[in-house]
Write a structure and sequence with these properties.
alpha/beta, Rossmann fold, DNA polymerase, domain 1, two-stranded antiparallel sheet, 7 strands, HAD-like_sf
């Protein structure tokens, strides 16, 4: 994984947030919604489609929270309020990924850090406050709901590379999803597939950071 990384080979580091910087536990949302709906979590989980059209549009800021929650109300077959959906929606954040709070400031002393995340407005509002200190190590956050573009689309990576202002091959990108890693590599970035909490630390070590 780190064989293509070497000291001095990066001018910028670009991090996904979910399961790279912030730990995510989606079962907390399902459990919360089931509690409000008075049903078994398994029945909701069986109906939930993560990458639905409404989900994608919500992550690009194209539809409101109310419209997205209404789509969930129909697809999940539960009658709970927008406030109850929001409570579960924001319950997924399970803390910081192991050791990331030490790794980010150390790396930031040598190279600028950026984040690029597929996310939505309520999550942005929540994590921006809850994890303000940790996220303060990033020079800029590129968020799908703000830029209207999502990983792994080519135009999304092109937009972020242009905004950072560094050649794509000099940007090292960290993501937990294989399709995003492949999308980044297709646009010329050096990408690290984060499959365990140790992968970020190993990659930074290989970069001499």
């Amino acid at each position: 994984m780190t064989s293509h990384l070497s000291p001095g080979s990066a001018d910028a580091l670009l991090f996904d947030l979910g399961r790279v910087v912030l730990d995510i536990d989606f079962s907390k949302a399902i459990t919360c919604w089931a509690g409000h709906a008075g049903c078994e979590p398994q029945s909701i989980l069986a109906r939930y489609v993560r990458d639905s059209e409404a989900y994608r549009l919500h992550e690009m800021g194209k539809i409101s929270d109310e419209v997205y929650f209404d789509s969930l109300r129909r697809s999940l077959g539960i009658e709970i309020s927008d406030a109850q959906f929001l409570e579960g929606w924001n319950a997924i954040f399970a803390g910081e990924m192991p050791d990331i709070a030490n790794l980010l400031p150390r790396a930031a002393k040598h190279v600028p850090l950026y984040a690029f995340s597929n996310t939505n407005r309520p999550h942005v509002e929540y994590f921006s406050k809850e994890y303000a200190d940790l996220l303060g190590h990033f020079r800029q956050l590129y968020l799908s709901s703000s830029i209207g573009l999502r990983k792994p689309d080519a135009e999304a990576f092109d937009h972020v590379v242009a905004a950072i202002g560094v050649p794509a091959q000099r940007i090292v990108f960290f993501d937990d999803l294989a399709e995003n890693v492949e999308g980044a590599r297709a646009r010329g970035l050096t990408a690290v597939h984060v499959t365990s909490p140790h992968d970020v630390g190993e990659a930074l070590k290989a970069l001499g950071l």
